[in-house]
Amino acid sequence: MATSSVGPGFLTQTTVFTQQLAASFAFVILISLILDVFAQVNVWRIIAVSGLRGHEIANKVFPGLGILLSVFIVIGGLAFNIGNVAGAGLGLNAMLGINPIAGSIISAIFAIMIFLIKEAGKVMDKITQIAGGVMIILMLYVAFTTSPPVGEALINTVKPETIDIFAIVTLVGGSVGGYITFAGGHRLLDAGIKGVESLPEVTKSSVIGIGVAGILRIALFLAVLGVVTQGLTIDPANPPASVFQLAAGDIGYRIFGVIMWAAAITSVVGAAYTSVSFIRSFHPMIDKYHNYIIILFIVISSATFAFVGQPVSVLILAGALNALILPLALGTILIGAYKKDVVGDYKHPLWLTITGAIVAIGMGYLAILTVMEQIPKLLG
């Protein structure tokens, strides 16, 4: 889940918003992390207790709702994966000087190889864990080299000079919106971790997942903040790459390549795996050959990259659009938490229901407002 949420869009969004809001972005990170935890703990716990995937719960809440949710998730996952494949190509380009299109093809082949291995799930888990560790170490190193004003960031965490609702919506959408909400929950089901007895482990895992993504977000924020406060100019064509290059020269640019590739390839794998998990129960043949359908999903994403660009503004808006799926998904899960044919005799904690409902309603309202506000800007 953590590495699925940390993709090219994550890197771009964090860089752009830090450039715009400076130290005030610390407040945005804090609020988004709190909302992320409430959303994800609710979703993962109900998935674990019920032993059902998100769309199966939705169908029990209202017949046909699971199909609608699956369509949104798959379309959103495919759209994000086009950007992820492109990001992987850009990562190899920065790391090794490989042509971005050739790099994206090489990366797609690497991702496909994971799902051709018999123990694909275990291999996927191990690769994403290693990639996450590498990203944290490199990101913290670059943050340290820029000497950011940590004290100012800490003050703005609780007393911001500027509050940007669009930034909060985008970050939450990029962290737990769309398919990402279900990435870890579905993976736990496939690993056999389910039932009431697994709830302590499930809750801990969901919080750790948000925590890992949060550490990466904070490290990148500090790195960008250090560059911004020095008065250096960030290249709008590729903001995160520009930050790393300004922070540590050519070595920094190579480090960016490693981080971008690791972030993109784990997101390619996570988006494809989770998106296909939403249609596995549609037909026995899909379930039987789901690994090959995941491969097809990656192939389609890679092929589409040849015709679709990766503008920074679209990556940022994608997070907000993903946030529109969150209220539907979370709201459905919360209703399912009180249906006996979903959770049996399990009693969902009232405080989780209330906080989850606040996130679902609040994010729904804010996401609609911000998307309606941003679309004319993109089209204009």
Automatic annotation (TrEMBL):
**Entry keyword annotation includes Membrane:** yes
Ordered alphabetically, the record's keywords are: Membrane, Transmembrane, Transmembrane helix
Top-rank taxon of the source lineage equals Bacteria
Q: What is its main location?
A: membrane
Q: Which residues form a coiled coil?
A: none
Q: Which InterPro entries match?
A: NRAMP_fam (IPR001046)
A GO term for molecular function: manganese ion transmembrane transporter activity
Localisation = Membrane
GO CC annotations, alphabetized: plasma membrane
Ranges annotated as spanning the membrane: 20-41, 61-82, 94-115, 127-145, 165-185, 206-231, 251-279, 291-308, 314-338, 350-372
Regarding the membrane, this protein is recorded as: Multi-pass membrane protein
Name of this chain's protein = Divalent metal cation transporter
